[in-house]
């Protein structure tokens, strides 16, 4: 009822209020401030999680109020109705996924009203990405994608007035430097957040250092971001939550016995004065909002109106407080104008400790299979985007399918999605959405491949369970199967491909009919043993493929002859027995049992790498590669915990190494060599080296993890080397730059690690962790986000899986105890080890490996047609001429007849150089008409990028007027008629450039 009333009123007010209003948005629409007063920027906002205790849709529609009363549609409805009543009122909208959904259900009138509100700066988009992404477990590619998506919707809908100027990362549990860098590269003027280690915060409050200038990159210039930490979480001051969810007193200002204006104003100002004391300028920002607030916005606004009225009334009696509705953008604008100087910040804000016993480092690893699935989603998204661009797909369904996966991937970046801090039913819903999204995009990829290759009727099926050697397409036979490989990287690459097959002999040929080296390798029995795995195939056909962009490989069954099935597997057979039902499999796998020489060692070696296994422990002992030999023991270890939860890893005693009683067998093939280890009842592993590949793969299988009412278990993989790392190690920031970590140390403060020495030294690992001394370097690359540390010199540990027994009290209300197929969750994944001589050559090789691991070949399966088609494969642009350090970051449909094209120099200032290349051939092969350069998100013309410049402490005289920064290079802009030399692109180390190509 109330809601209908609101709309009627809104229409009425539309006529009166909006007619003569001037369209000024952005900083020009900011409220006037008072130079000699404390200006209180009151910022109405609602924090709307894109899934957490309820699913995305449950939150949007206000469904399942028994779990949590929250309905985002009503929030936006009532906020709009309240904003229209008074031009002074302001509200920020943050999560574009919710706003987009709401918008799609609006009438034309309602849309017109919202347009006006946006054009007058009354409704201001802040943040503005699809979701408020997490900053620990996300990969930069997916963050950039989800900003591109959100900002594009805002730009398409509202133009420049819809463009957010300020980041709003108020809830993520720690903050990455790469996120700040991404904001800077998108042209944001600053960001605000609300979570920081409590010791850090206390010190910053004392030092007036809550607001700072973050130098967000070691390689990029012009990459500073103003960063502000809120005073007290993101909620309203205590006692001033005027929301229907809260019980705080309304402001009673009539002649009532309960009139409370005096005390309400007194208390509010005393809070504000405490805030003001801890910040540098005469402006303070007071957020007014919390999770899912403003569902009945008139209650909030009515009381805030009164608060403003009575606070400002005191000015006539000499009060120097000036209260008004504002936005984070307007607050930042005031700070910029204050010409103040600010402290420097260079590292990041991990880990986040909310008290001495609570470091939020568990979520770096929580829900390991979902974290991996999200990477699969990204892989399919990049592949489908590139393929659909190359094939110029224009079908509605194809576009829709691609857009759907983009949206779901945006949702997955949310700080309760990729983090694993949502309720189980919400996690299940994310899986459902992502699975649907992947299937749709796989269809788009298939359609493109039908256009691009000589198989116009190919099935091009994707097998999503290759990680456990299952593929429906080859389960009966791989005879006459065509495997089409798509390489999403710029440069041609060589990888080993594994196809699940029966124990049969196959021949693999390439498009020229040449035989490609292959072999049939037995799958570890622990994988065959998985209850939920259909046991149609027990082997993998392994072959080595080199691919520029797209290539077919043909698989044909051949008469075996015993000659090519020289599988040699040996076992130190004195340990635990292989389950009986696998005796037969073992027979098929030609297992030969060696009764052991316990004292000896087993050497597994190819032309690049030598591994030495200790026969008595069954574990890895030494690695030799890249001319370096180093003792590398790899073990599994367990933290037995009680009070850990989805967010927090809370140690309860020391790490316990799993016993040295590893049963192992060795597969000694020509292309691949594998050590299959049975480590404990619920841990096994395959250590693997491929001929010609300069890294060692550790493919782990962990679960079901046993727990009891007193004991949760968190499993880590532990590498012990002899490298004298002296407490120093390195972890990546969202898959891009590396940050130096020092055990027990932080950049600005002394951490309190008395209670949680390990958890407090954990850092997020999105792609890489490494340590080194003056001679040697040891790096571990992973396949999903995890947490890890170096607790002893020369050691690295990476947390793989966690099964917990209690909730940690931060809201999710469930113990993290995942089940799949009726059993505690089993997870599988890979760590890749590179041992090298220390130096920039080594780190550059790691970068290249990172790209290959993040974006491997996509595999598509078809039956070989009985008659050869006359269709010719289309010629594709070649990116292979790009300099070696150039990554094809994005190639995707943007608007109609527009393509977004991003390139990145992936080497940093120590590893690489400035590179130049010409993109005219690419432009031509995409039928380009015009090209323009934009901010990182693709929506802001780079020539329009103008950011606030802030003044550093200790850098000399203060400026006398406001300053701005502009892009340091001339934006590329050209059309078809221009000379090829106008299409030259230069990339500094770590630089990313984004272009929009208009085509015919
Ligand atoms: C902060 O960084 C700036 C720019 O790099 C530098 O000029 C200034 O000296 C630094 N200030 C302090 C206090 O270190
Ligand atoms: Zn949140």
TrEMBL record:
Matches recorded under SMART domains: Alpha-mann_mid
GO terms under biological process: mannose metabolic process
SUPFAM superfamilies reported for this sequence: Families 57/38 glycoside transferase middle domain, Galactose mutarotase-like, Glycoside hydrolase/deacetylase
Any one of the GO CC terms: lysosome
All residue ranges annotated as the Glycoside hydrolase family 38 central domain in the record: 358-434
PANTHER family in the record: ALPHA-MANNOSIDASE, LYSOSOMAL ALPHA-MANNOSIDASE
Protein name: Alpha-mannosidase
Organism: Drosophila willistoni
């Amino acid at each position: 009822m109330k809601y209908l009333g609101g709309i009627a009123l809104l229409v009425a007010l539309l006529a009166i209020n909006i007619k003569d209003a001037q369209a000024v948005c952005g900083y020009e629409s900011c409220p006037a401030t008072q130079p000699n007063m404390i200006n209180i920027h009151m910022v109405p906002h609602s924090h709307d999680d894109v899934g957490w205790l309820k699913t995305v849709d449950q939150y949007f529609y206000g469904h399942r109020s028994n779990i949590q009363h929250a309905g985002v549609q009503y929030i936006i409805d009532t906020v709009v109705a309240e904003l229209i009543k008074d031009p002074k009122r302001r509200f920020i909208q943050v999560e574009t996924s919710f706003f987009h959904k709401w918008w799609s259900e609006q009438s034309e009138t309602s849309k017109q009203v919202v347009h006006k509100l946006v054009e007058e700066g009354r409704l201001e988009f802040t943040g503005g990405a699809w979701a408020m992404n997490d900053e620990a477990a996300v990969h930069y590619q997916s963050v950039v994608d989800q900003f591109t998506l959100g900002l594009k919707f805002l730009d398409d809908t509202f133009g420049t007035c819809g463009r957010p100027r300020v980041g709003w990362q108020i809830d993520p549990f720690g903050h990455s430097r790469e996120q700040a860098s991404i904001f800077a590269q998108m042209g944001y003027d600053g960001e605000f957040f609300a979570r920081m280690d409590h010791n850090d915060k206390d010190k910053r409050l004392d030092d007036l250092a809550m607001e700072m200038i973050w130098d967000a990159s070691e390689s990029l210039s012009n990459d500073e971001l103003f960063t502000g930490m809120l005073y007290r979480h993101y909620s309203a001051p205590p006692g001033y939550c005027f929301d229907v969810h809260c019980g705080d007193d309304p402001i009673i200002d009539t002649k009532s016995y309960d009139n409370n204006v005096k005390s309400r104003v007194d208390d509010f100002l005393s809070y504000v004065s405490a805030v003001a004391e801890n910040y540098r300028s005469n402006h303070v920002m007071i957020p007014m909002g919390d999770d899912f607030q403003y569902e009945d916005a008139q209650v909030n606004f009515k009381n805030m109106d009164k608060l403003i009225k009575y606070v400002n009334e005191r000015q006539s009696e000499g009060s120097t407080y000036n209260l008004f509705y504002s936005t984070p953008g307007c607050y930042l604008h005031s700070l910029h104008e204050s010409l103040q100087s600010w402290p420097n910040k260079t590292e990041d804000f991990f880990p986040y400790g909310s008290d001495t016993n609570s470091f939020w480092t568990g979520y770096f690893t929580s829900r390991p299979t979902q974290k991996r699935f999200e990477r699969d989603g990204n892989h399919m998204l990049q592949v489908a985007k590139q393929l659909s661009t190359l094939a110029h797909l224009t079908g509605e369904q194809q576009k829709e399918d691609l857009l759907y996966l983009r949206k779901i991937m945006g949702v997955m970046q949310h700080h309760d999605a990729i983090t694993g801090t949502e309720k189980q039913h919400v996690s299940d819903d994310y899986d459902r959405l992502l699975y649907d999204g992947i299937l749709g995009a796989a269809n788009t990829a298939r359609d493109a491949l039908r256009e691009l290759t000589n198989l116009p009727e190919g099935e091009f099926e994707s097998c999503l369970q290759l990680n456990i050697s299952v593929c429906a397409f080859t389960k009966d036979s791989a005879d006459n199967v065509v495997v089409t490989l798509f390489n999403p990287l710029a440069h041609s690459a060589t990888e080993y491909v594994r196809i699940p097959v029966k124990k049969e002999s196959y021949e693999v040929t390439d498009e020229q009919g040449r035989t490609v080296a292959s072999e049939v390798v037995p799958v570890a029995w622990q994988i065959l043993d998985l209850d939920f795995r259909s046991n149609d195939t027990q082997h993998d056909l392994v072959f080595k493929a080199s691919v520029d962009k797209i290539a077919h490989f043909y698989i044909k069954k051949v008469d075996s002859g015993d000659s090519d099935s020289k599988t040699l597997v040996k076992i130190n057979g004195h340990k635990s027995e292989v389950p009986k039902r696998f005796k037969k499999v073992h027979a098929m796998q030609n297992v030969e049992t060696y009764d052991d020489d316990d004292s000896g060692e087993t050497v597994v070696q190819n032309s690049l790498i030598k591994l030495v296994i200790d026969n008595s422990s069954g574990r890895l002992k030494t690695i030799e590669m890249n001319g370096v030999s180093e003792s590398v023991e790899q073990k599994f270890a367990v933290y037995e915990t009680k009070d850990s939860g989805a967010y927090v890893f809370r140690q309860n005693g020391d790490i316990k190494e799993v016993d040295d009683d590893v049963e192992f067998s060795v597969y000694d093939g020509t292309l691949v060599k594998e050590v299959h280890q049975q480590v404990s009842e619920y841990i096994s592993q395959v250590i693997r080296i491929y001929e010609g590949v300069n890294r060692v793969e550790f493919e782990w299988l962990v679960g079901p993890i046993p727990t009891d009412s007193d004991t949760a278990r968190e499993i880590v993989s532990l590498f012990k080397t002899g490298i004298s790392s002296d407490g120093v190690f390195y972890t990546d920031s969202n898959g891009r730059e590396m940050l130096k970590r020092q055990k027990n140390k932080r950049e600005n403060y002394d951490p309190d690690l008395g209670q949680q020495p390990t958890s407090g030294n954990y850092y997020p690992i999105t792609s890489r962790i490494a340590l080194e001394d003056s001679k040697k370097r040891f790096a571990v690359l992973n396949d999903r986000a995890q947490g890890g540390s170096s607790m002893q010199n020369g050691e690295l540990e990476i947390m793989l899986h966690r099964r917990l027994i209690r909730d940690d009290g931060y809201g999710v209300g469930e113990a993290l105890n995942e089940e799949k197929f009726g059993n505690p969750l089993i997870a599988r994944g890979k760590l890749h080890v590179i041992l090298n001589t220390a130096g920039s050559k080594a780190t550059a090789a790691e970068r290249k490996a990172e790209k290959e691991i993040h974006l491997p070949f996509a595999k598509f399966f078809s039956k070989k047609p009985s008659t050869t088609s006359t269709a010719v494969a289309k010629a594709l642009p070649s990116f292979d001429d790009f300099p070696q350090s150039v990554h094809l970051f994005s190639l995707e449909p943007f608007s109609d007849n527009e393509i977004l094209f991003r390139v990145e120099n992936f080497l940093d200032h120590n590893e690489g150089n400035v590179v130049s290349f010409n993109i005219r051939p690419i432009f031509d092969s995409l039928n380009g008409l015009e090209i323009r350069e934009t901010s990182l998100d693709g929506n802001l013309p780079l020539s329009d990028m103008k950011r606030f410049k802030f003044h550093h402490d200790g850098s000399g005289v203060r400026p006398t007027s406001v300053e701005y920064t502009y892009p340091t290079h001339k934006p590329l802009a050209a059309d078809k008629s221009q000379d090829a030399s106008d299409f030259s692109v230069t990339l500094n180390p770590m630089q990313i450039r984004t272009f929009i190509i208009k085509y015919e």
